[in-house]
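Apologies for my clumsy wording, but are you able to produce some protein sequence, whichever is easiest, and the tokens describing how it folds?
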Amino acid sequence: MKTRIRSRRRDKRERGQSLVEFALSISMLMWILSGVLDIGRMYMTYLALQSAAGEGALFASIHPTWVNSCPVAAIGCRNPAYDSIVARTRNEAPLGGLIDWTTANISVINGPGGTLQTAPITVTITYEYEMFTPMISAIWPTVDLSGSAVELILDPGN
């Protein structure tokens, strides 16, 4: 009879111990999962930067002089606020509020050598990515991401 009572008491204590272990392990698992989601969001931001730099470089290879705005009488210029290399690059940002590209730095650089028609043009975007997970952001608050693309300027004479 005494052995049954002792074994029942031990079972109740072990159930409590299992509950504490589960609570500790689920909290660690949620912390790791949120970190993985934050790293995935950072990778998506990097891919979006690369895509936007590619769009800006492609537009710059067609219109190399339209850095900040298109000339008023230029052929193909419909909207000076949208038809520029910087605006095309900035408007490539994905919608939905995950990335705010109003603080991104966009630079357009003509490469060395040759005339404007033979030099490569480089579009570079730098963005300060803020971590979303509170525990990670306390240790590592921001990460500087950058994306760049190089295109040859298309010769309008050909």
Remarks:
- The chain has one domain: 2-152.
- The longest strand covers residues 120-130.
- Strands lie at 105-110, 120-130, 142-152.
- Residues 2-152 form one domain.
